[in-house]
Amino acid sequence: MAIYLLLFDSTHAALSVSKEFDTQGLSYYSVAAPASLRAGCGIALRFQSDDPTKYLQLAYLYVGDAMQLYVRSESGGYTPLDNTHI
Amino acid sequence: MTKLLDGFGKACPQPLVMAKKELEQGNYDIAIQVDNEMAVKNITRLAQKYSLSLSCEEIVGGWLLTFSDAPHDKGAETSTLLMEENWQVSSGSYAVFIGKDCVGAGDAELGYNLMKMAIFTLSEGDAVPTSLLFMNTGVKLLCEEGQIVECVRVLEKKGSEVLVCGTCLDFYGLKDSLKVGEVSNMYDILTRMQEATKVITL
């Protein structure tokens, strides 16, 4: 399963999405956004999934485009993904 | 002759303090009777710290804990301990004190999320704290399965000692809900702070 990281433009966006993930019983970790990635908010949500669509769709409902999805590479770095497959 | 200390009816951590006082004076030939399991655990840890063997016998109303009359192989262990202590200092041993269920003051939800992030970040690193010390509402963090409990388990596996205030668990009615860590007391928690090169308060 791939590891994804969701970054947000604002802390309020991050908190509302994390709350919704909790409500829906989706598994994730609240982590500090890596310093190498630019984001408006230092809170990132990390999750492991075969298909991130469910996470993304839910997040999109709450914050729209105010987020950025990354996938973790084997080297440990993160590569941005576009959100078009939501 | 073995000196008998009476810890019956004494609140935590008094029995521990009584035993430690004797050991500090070089009196290893002691026994102490206690009436609660927490005191048994605390005194067992004390014996380990002094490299003393300890026997535990169930008696009417509690337990009788008897120390050996001298630390076993004291000379050999002292030099090892000194080396270990020096190494820990040079590598920057540190304790993390968590006295609340959130980081900082202000919005509780933000503070709780910051706490999750902080403990996750600690668990990901190589330089883990020598001890994590939980008091007051901080103990609530360890009473529900989830990210924080998972990360604290990782820290334990990496070598961190996790001490949780028993008085606080008792106050919040959480004594049976603790998922990770060892029930401890003010005496041990303050000792870990004193022993650490630095203490980080979250």
Brief summary:
The complex is a heterodimer of chains A (86) and B (202). Chain A contains two helices and five strands.
Whole-number mean pLDDT of chain A: 88
Q: DSSP helix count of chain B?
A: 7
Greatest contact pair? A-B, 11 and 9 residues
Strand order of the largest sheet of chain B: 8-7-6-5-9
H-E order of chain B? EHEHEEHEHEHEHEHE
Q: Give the overall pLDDT of chain B as a whole number.
A: 86
**Strand element count of chain A:** 5
Share of residues in strands of chain B = 15-25%
- What general outline of chain A do the C-alpha atoms trace? globular
Report helical residue fraction of chain A: 25-40%
How are the strands of the biggest sheet of chain A laid out side by side?
Answer: 2-3-1-4-5
Radius of gyration of chain A: 12 Å
Major beta sheet summary of chain B: 5 strands, parallel
End-to-end C-alpha gap of chain B:
48 Å
Q: What is the rounded distance between the termini of chain A?
A: 18 Å
Structure description:
The complex is a heterodimer of chains A (86) and B (202). Chain A is α+β, with helices and mostly antiparallel strands and 86 residues long. Chain A has 2 helices and 5 strands, in the order βαββαββ. In chain A, strand 4 (67-72) and strand 5 (78-81) form a beta hairpin. Chain A is globular. Chain B is an alpha/beta fold. In chain B, the strands form 2 sheets. Chain B has a 5-stranded parallel beta sheet, sandwiched between helices. In chain B, helix 4 (108-124) runs parallel beside helix 5. Chain B starts with a strand and ends with a strand. The model of chain B is unreliable at 74-90 (pLDDT under 50). The interface between A and B is small, with 11 and 9 residues.
